[in-house]
């Protein structure tokens, strides 16, 4: 048991994690492509028309999974930040840096698709609703993290500063999730819950879940691909990088 733990722990080293990430990211990219193709097909060609919102509701198949991922990725960043601060591992900061742009992308996609959905439903592109405002704060947290870590020349100091931002900002995630319950908002409540039966048709649910899986696989694939570039940049003066064959870089 302890031997297996040690074998897994060795991947905390950038030199050991680099080849593992290189082998794993194409598989996750392939899964993302497959799930996305199936999800889009069900979402736009199989799922029935909503009796209240018509065809315009189909944007939820992008909006909802993007919103989920924007919150989930920030939680993962906070997890890596806690690991980095506790154990002083170099890979933790690299993983947080690799995840941040993808999280910002999903937060922006959530806000943008929400505006496209809100205009015909609410009659406005934007309202200072609790859910929308807290999601906008999440987007700014991502941008702030990226800007702060890029502004500090020393990577270890940048990682620690970014870790503080990630850990402090993670309190915003439950605010986003529970905002529709804590305040009187225009935003509708959750259609999918772990404790209640879904309030949508089965085909709609499958389309949404497949798109969520696609976004999840994409996030893993692009984070692994990006962290390899970060590892090469930070470890470029080390012996193991100098000995890497050109095809493996």
UniProtKB/TrEMBL annotation:
This is Heme exporter protein C. Coiled coil: none annotated. The chain crosses the membrane at residues 24-46, 66-87, 99-118, 130-152, 164-183, 203-227. Its main location: membrane. Residues 29-187 form the Cytochrome c assembly protein domain. Belongs to the CcmC/CycZ/HelC family. It comes from Zoogloea oryzae. It is found in: Cell inner membrane; Membrane. It is a multi-pass membrane protein. InterPro entries: Cyt_c_assembly, Cyt_c_biogenesis_CcmC, Cyt_c_biogenesis_CcsA/CcmC. It holds the Pfam family Cytochrom_C_asm. The gene is ccmC.
